[in-house]
Write a structure and sequence with these properties.
Blueprint (H helix, E strand, L loop, with lengths): L2 H12 L2 H8 L2 E9 L4 E7 L5 E8 L9 H12 L8 E6 L3 E7 L3 E2 H8 L5 H20 L2 E2 L8 E4 L4 E4 L6 E2 L19 H4 L8 H16 L9 H12 L29 H6 L4 H11 L10 H5 L12
Antiparallel strand pairs: 1-2, 2-3, 3-5, 4-5, 6-8, 7-10, 8-9
Helix pairs in contact: 5-7, 7-10
Organism: Symbiodinium necroappetens
Subunit structure: May form a complex composed of at least the catalytic subunit CRK2 and a cyclin.
GO molecular function: ATP binding; cyclin binding; cyclin-dependent protein serine/threonine kinase activity
Amino acid sequence: MDLSEVEQRIRMLIFDADEAAEVSEHFRIVQKLGEGTYGKVYKAISRTTNEVFALKRIPIQQSEYGVPAATIREVSLLKECDHPNVIRLYEVLSKEHARYLVFEFMDMDLRTYLTRNGAFKDLTGLKNAAWQCIRGIHHCHSIRILHRDLKPHNVLVDVTGSRFKLADFGLARAFSVQMRALTQEVVSLWYRAPEILMGERKYASPTDIWSLGCIVAEMATGQVLFPGDSQIDTLFRIFRMLGTPSEEVWPGVSTLREFTLEFPKWSRAGLVDVRAKAPALGPDGLDLVDQCLKYNVAERASARHLLQHRFFENFVIAT
């Protein structure tokens, strides 16, 4: 069996006959990288330049409304995001059966990286990774874009170049100074801010900052910070660490739909477990995480302030 026959068989395993013909004109499919709610992602090599790309395939539902709204949002918002720490969308191919989003290729996601390599033990590496993630979300917020699904799976890593980029903007939204009601079905449960878990529908950039704090802690420890198996379990894990919220520490909490006076009363323990598991963070790194995990969104640090945090003092990161 020659190489062309092998390629054809691979394509037929991935797509049906019509779809294989659609994509084979432009790309040689190497492997499937992953699958999400709205499509599958493949490693693909351009037939004209031999460059490697990530190819996201979104099927078109002929009987409904065509391209999913999430895909339209993802494309439109990514076109606004031209930044080294946000994944680059090169082009969109429109075919009969599907739309293909052509992204720059990265080695793996942060979840895979941590699974293979463990936590960041090197302070320089930890600062570099945290800085790039914060810088990416700072850019998004500066042009009024909420990511709304920050998690290690959506942070992509170029291992050789030590580059980190935010990806998967399918749940992202543009926002304005005047907050409006938004859905609560956002952000993977472990990285979801407590205000959303408690029923708040008017939220903005601080929700992304909470997720960032969880991610930085996970980078340093190699373990998920709040691995709840349900919404209430996640809330209780947060309460055990940060204390059961009250009006004193979180003005307005008692008005939220999911609040109840029957919540168990836990005192604030702080980041004791994170400190024990992540010596590389040090006092400054712990404070940075703590600034992300404030109940009161008015007290939660912005991405701009996080970039100015003393954790990054005297640390030069290549751009």
